[in-house]
Amino acid sequence: MQTRGRFITFEGIDGSGKTTQMRILAERLRREGREVLEAVEPGGTEVGSQIRRILLDSANQDLRPTAELLLYFASRAQNVEQCILPALSQGKIVLCDRFTDSTLAYQGYGRGLGEETVLTLDRIACQGLAPDLTVLVDVDVDTGLARARVRNTGTAGSETRMDDQSLDFHRKVREAYLDLARKHAGRFRIIDGRGTPETVAARVWESVATHV
Fold it and tell me: What value does the CA radius of gyration of the chain take, rounded to a whole number of Å?
């Protein structure tokens, strides 16, 4: 009988380096002969990519918090059913760049919509799926936003709507992440995101090696 794969999510504020760290881990696991699916939220599917463009387009500053929340879960529901659950059923390791913890931090706390509202939608959209392990790449807000600005300079497109939120908003999000990590200490691994990508990657591997 096929053993269910492992579901590992990467979380962090904008500019934390989580996307880079997920890619480094995926490459390492593939070199070791493991089958890996890299997923991203929002996005990950053709439908999800269209929703992502709405959510992250800097022109859509008027998008209301409840509409924003529902769009995130619409993308996630498509990704879970179309890509993530099938890959797990095939025994693959699924690495996901953001999942419901992001929504709890950004919309539940940052937007003030509340944890219960987010978790109610999670039960509908994610069909009971929860991460086996969550890697929280943590940096201070000033460092994260500075990195995000550098990343966005000269890049095509306009996926900066969330980066453009107030400093207070981003501070709330970071505090929410740290609070989630304390509440779910068995699942979360907090990784110091300071240093070179290679230095941070060594910290990530030390935390996840026994889980893959």
Answer: 16
